[in-house]
User: What shape does this take?
Amino acid sequence: MDFEKYLETINLLNRASVAYYRDDSPFMSDEEYDRLYREAVDFEWKNPDKKQNYSPTMRVGSKIREGFTKVVHSEKMMSLDDAFSVREVEEFFNRLDFVPAGGYVVEQKIDGLALNILYEKGKFVKAATRGDGSVGEDVTENVATIKEIPLEIQELANVEKIEVRGEVYMPKSSFEELNAAKSGTGEKPFANPRNAAAGSLRQLDPKVTAGRKLKFFAYAITGISDVDIKSQEELHGFLRGLGFKTPHYEKMEKIEEIEALIEKTVAERGELPFDIDGLVVKLNSFDEQKAAGFLTKTPKWAIAYKLPAIEKTTKLLDITWQVGRTGIITPVAELEPVEIAGVIVKRATLHNIEEVERKGLKIGDTVFVRRAGDVIPEVTAPVETLRDGSEKEIFHPENCPVCGAKLAKDENKVAYKCQNIGCQAKIVAYISYFVSKGCFNIDGLGEKQVEFLHEKGWLSSVTDIFHLSDYALMLSGEKGWGAKSVYNLLDAIEKARKIRFRNFLNALGIDGVGEFIAGELEKRFTAEELIAASALDLMQIDGIGDIVANSITDFFADPQNKETVGKLLNEVEIIYPEKSENPENAVFAGKTFVITGTLSQPREFFAEKIKALGGKVSGSVSKKTDFVLVGEDAGSKLTKAKELGVRTITEEEFNSMAG
Assistant: This one.
C-alpha cells in the first residue's frame, strides 16, 4: 500500500463509521471494514511519520507521550458570569443597550472540561484544552480516542478551517465503573465525573484515555465565515448535521420563562446520565450577540445560571478532629447517615473552628446538609427551632489528638496546627518536605521512598534520616532498591550534613517561616541564639510581626521540637553566611524593596540580587519602603503601595536599574 492508497483507505473507513454509527445505514460488511482497518494499521506501523491524526486507528490510542505542549487559541475561549437567581439573569440582560428581539436559548451546562477542536478541510487536525482561555494544552492524541468526535467530516471538505468548541465529560455509569475498578486495585478513586474526565483527558498514554469512555457535547464554532448560520438554535442543527451531539436546549422568548425550566431541571437532573451544574442562557440571534459584545473575560450575551445544591436535614452526632498531613487540625462532622442525590452521606468537613462558630453548630443539632457542587458533602446551618436543650457546645482541642502536643493557631488565625515535627499523623509529609529542594535537598528521597521507609519502621522522625545507613543491607534487598541506589541515597545524605542555616530553618517547617524569612533570620542569629530569642527580639526584623514571632518562639518552646532540633544540630554542620558590609556606592545601597506578584523567577532570586547590590528586602509595605517590585496578579501589597504613594516598578524597570 502506498501513501495515496493509505489516504483513500482511511477516508473510506471514516465514511463507513459515520454511516454505521451516525446515519444507521452501513454500506460495508464488518469483515471488509476489519480487512481495510488492518491494512491501515500495517501501513502506519511501517510508516509512522505518515500516520494521519484523522486515521480511525487513533481511536485506540497511539504511543505514550512525554508531556503536553502549549497551544495558542485562534480566538480566546471565554468564561461565563454566574447567576444564582432569575432576577440576576434578568438584570444581566437588562444591562444591554437594546431589547433582545430574537429570544433566548437555554442550554444544559455540562459539568466537564472545555475543549477546542480544529478541522482543516474536514480532517481532524488538533485538539486543545481551554487552559487560561488564551493558551491551552495539546491533547490531540487523547481526544482522537473519543468515539463521539468525528475524525473526518465530509460536509466540511471544502472549508479551509473550522474550530468546534464544546465539553468533554464522563457519563455517570462510566464514572462508577472506573471507580469500582480503581477500588479493586487499591487505587484512590476520582472524586466526581468532572475530575475523572479531566484526569482521563490528560493521560500521557492515549490508550488509557481510550478506555475511559469519555463523551463530548459541542456548543460553538469559530473560524468559519461561509456558512449561513444566524442563531444559536440554527447552530445546534448545524453541529448535529456534522455528527456532533449538542446539549439539550430550549428556545424561549422571555427570561421569565426560565423559572419553569429551572424547576423542571432541578427535578430531573438526578435522572440524567451525566452531571450538569447549571443552565447557560444565551441571546439566540448572532447579530444580537455581536451587538452585545464582550467584557475582558466574559461575553455580555451569555450567562451561566448555577443550579442550587441538593440539600437535606440530618443529625450532627459528633465532631472528630483530624490531623492533616501538614499538621492542620480539621473538624469533621459525624452525621446520621442521609441519602443525597444517590449518595449516602455520613461525614462532612467543617474546615476550621471558625466555620463551626460562624455557623453556630452544636453537637446534637439537626443540620442542613448539601453536596456542594453536587459532590462534596457540606453542613450549611443548624435548624435552631428544633433544639430541645440537650445540644452541646463545640470546643476546639488544646492538644493534638494524635501526639498530645500543644496546638498553635496558624498564621491566618483561622485554624489550629500541630507544630510537633515528630507527630506521626503528619510525619511522611513532613519528612518529604524536610528533604526537598530549598531544605536539605536530598536526592532519591521523594514522598514514595519516605512512605516506604516509614512503613518499614526505619524512618519515624527526621533524625532517623542520618541513621539510614544502619539499614543499608536490608534496604538493598528490597524491590526497587538496588545496591547502587542505596549507595547514592546514603551519599546524598552525607552531603546534606553540611547545610546553610536558612535551608535548615526552612526545613523545620515553622508556621510562617519560608525561605525569605529564614534568610532574614540567618543574618541576625545563630541556631542557639534563635532558639533562645524572644518574640520582641524577632519583631525587630523587617517582615516579622507578632504572629510569626510567636509562632517561632512557640515552636522552640515545645519540648519535643527542642529535643529534635538538638539532635539535628548534633548530626549536621550549619554554614553561616559571611558577614560583610555593603559598599555605600552600591546601586541599591540604603534602599528598601518589597516584592509582590508572579515574576519570571522566584522571589528569592530578586531578593538575593537586591541584597547583593546593597539593598534590603521587606515583607510588608510601609512609608519607609522605597520600591515595590510588582509582578502579575499582585494583591494587597500593590494596593498598600498605591495608598502610601510608594513607587512601584516592573521587572523590566528593575533589571534596568540593576544594570
Notes: The chain is about 35% helix and 20% strand. The radius of gyration is 30 Å.
